[in-house]
Design a protein that fits this description.
11-stranded mixed beta sheet; 13 strands; alpha/beta; two-stranded antiparallel sheet; Rossmann fold
Length: 429
């Protein structure tokens, strides 16, 4: 039976992506980047740091990308008190052609430096990796395909940059979606704006205020911080949805179908996606990859539920948990399912960890292999599931879900019960 201290801090660490060792809390954490569905690292850079690879998308379309700076002048920045909220987003989309258009980096230099200093990977020597060297399979400025394509918003785990969802987002775009990857400024480890300005995360300092004594955490303070994190993110997502029709270049705006909008994310990003759908009728379907849906829960009280769990959802949603996380074992998921009237599924992947649903599932194996790190480092970050199987399952489930509810595409029953195509998937509800 977990102690109240362990349960409260574990929930906070998962949502905030704060390493448990930093707050003396047991339990998992995670988040990172990815390499091919079996890809290997490049040779080391001249300075001895590793260069990593990401897997190619599996869909029929090549992928284009552009980055946008969006400014919400109606809202002061909730973290700094500045006069407005400023965000960066990356837009991935099916491209007509990619010849002559350079592959986009996963992280810009300022983002890579911030990630090196503060990353959520357990026991990974981040300074041994050249994070700025990794290239995605999205090509900068490539012309958009014919469309129309549904629009899907992506929110990363707390403390993570948007780029740590590149494997899933690039793949979803290759299957016929416009995917908008949102960086939550002062939440993400580092956000680089045009001109090279970099804004670093404020979450560690905010967490230290909420948990000055890890041995005696105050659930009320933790809940207040977690609620702020999620609600700032929800406001960001809704603003991005407001701003995109006017911010996209005309050719891309012409193929983005804002009548078909979805959202997904990992950890705090998964909570964000579901809460944003609860709050905004424009979002028609949402998927949560191993993110809790309540602000704090422990074994002594009912916790601090969100409106998401108390109201439930009336539109389709997908819960995908790490091994062992189901509505029967995660109380807030159980409450959400009980109060919801829309289509839903709750699944787990056998052998998955919290970071299995980020690019970490591909990047961490490359790092641990090349640096000869203990197997425990690999399994703590991304579980025991094989890399290729994890990438295939993650991509297939996401594409099946949005294909069914945004595009009316046949998903061959992959969301209705066990399938030999995805033997790792366990159906919880």
């Amino acid at each position: 039976m977990p102690t109240r201290r362990a349960t409260v801090l574990s929930a906070a660490a998962v949502l905030l992506a704060v390493p448990a060792r930093a707050v003396a809390a047991p339990g998992p954490r995670t988040e990172p980047r990815t390499a091919g569905a079996g890809g290997s690292a490049d040779e080391s850079a001249t300075d001895g740091r590793l260069r990593l690879k990401l897997p190619a998308p599996s869909g029929p379309h090549p992928v284009g990308t552009l980055a946008l700076r969006l400014v919400d002048t109606s809202r002061p920045d909730p973290w700094t008190g500045g006069p407005h909220r400023e965000l960066m987003v990356s837009v991935r989309y099916p491209a007509r052609a990619i010849r002559g258009f350079a592959a986009a980096p996963q992280m810009l230099p300022g983002e890579a430096a911030g990630w090196t200093e503060l990353n959520s990977l357990a026991d990974i020597p981040a300074d041994r990796v050249d994070w700025a060297a990794t290239r995605t399979h999205a090509h900068q400025g490539a012309p958009a395909g014919a469309g129309p394509y549904p629009v899907v918003l992506y929110s990363p785990g707390a403390g993570d940059p948007r780029s740590l969802g590149s494997v899933l987002c690039d793949d979803l775009a290759s299957r016929g979606h416009v995917v908008v990857m949102v960086d939550h400024t002062y939440d993400a480890s580092a956000v680089e704006f045009p001109g090279g300005r970099v804004e670093r995360t404020l979450l560690p300092a905010e967490f230290a205020k909420a948990v000055p004594d890890p041995e005696h955490p105050d659930p009320v303070k933790i809940a207040a911080l977690l609620e702020k994190v999620v609600m700032v993110r929800v406001s960001d997502v809704r603003f991005v949805l407001d701003a995109l029709p006017g911010a996209l270049p005309a050719p891309l705006r012409a193929v983005a179908d804002f009548a078909r909008v979805g959202a997904f994310g990992q950890s705090a990003g998964g909570f964000t996606a579901l809460q944003a759908m609860h709050d905004d009728r424009r979002i028609h379907a949402a998927a949560d990859f191993d993110g809790v849906t309540s602000y704090v829960q422990d074994d002594d009280q009912d916790g601090f539920p969100s409106t998401l769990t108390t109201d439930g959802l009336d539109r389709p949603f997908l819960l995908v948990g790490k091994d062992g996380n189901t509505p029967g074992t995660v109380p807030c998921w159980g409450e959400l399912v009980r109060h919801s009237h829309g289509w839903h599924r709750a699944l787990t992947l056998h052998g998955a960890a919290h970071g299995t649903y980020t690019d970490a599932v591909v990047l961490v194996p490359q790092i641990t292999r090349r640096l000869d790190l203990p197997r425990a480092t690999l399994t703590e970050n991304v579980g025991t599931i094989a890399t290729r199987r994890a990438v295939t399952a993650d991509r297939t489930l996401l594409a099946a879900f949005f294909g069914r509810f945004l595009s009316d595409r046949a998903d061959h029953g992959l969301l209705d019960g066990p399938s030999p195509r995805l033997p790792e998937v366990r159906f919880a509800s």
